[in-house]
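Protocol step 4 of 6: structure prediction from sequence.
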Amino acid sequence: MQNRTEQILVNEIINEKKNRGIPGCPSKTKTLEAERHPKFLTSPNYPGNYGVYQQRLSCSWLIKASSEYEDVVIQLQVHNSSIEPATGCWRDSVEIVDGPKDFFRPLISWCGSTWPKATITSTASEVLVKFGTDFKKNDYYGFMLSYWVAKRPIFIANPIEWTTLNYSLLSIGLAFMFGITTWLIGLYMKREFIPHITILLSELTT
């Protein structure tokens, strides 16, 4: 237990030193209040490139509904984004989590020159925005998004990014369903119609 506590303290010290002196990248999670009117959040040095620091950035912001609002959700809109691309976004990435801590369900994450165009909606009144990078110098300018509170909808649907794997699985599923349906129809016809046809043919031949 003591070793684990010591490791947590060491990690906090490392993170604090790592982000020290970098405007716009808090060394600890910064809390932002969301209201009815949109507010804006940008990556460090935006619209300049964040790679100018040549440090491993680990920035996080907790967006919470202001205490005056009840039964609301957080909505976000990404307006612009340019993040260093990599397979699986293992270098630099932006992630939005559906809750106040890392272990909550991720709503969406991205990197590269594409970003979610649809409005992102939480299921509760808090979301965590995370921006992580490697130490490599680059010419990418990061992201800009807006956030606000909205009345909790009856049904919440967030955009899902479909990949080749998604379409492949869908095709397999449809083929399987079609095969099962065809087999059931054949089985029904064999049981219900073929005996009657056999009887009818035997009557005609006698």
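Step 5 (inspection) to follow. Helices lie at 2-19, 164-192, 194-205.
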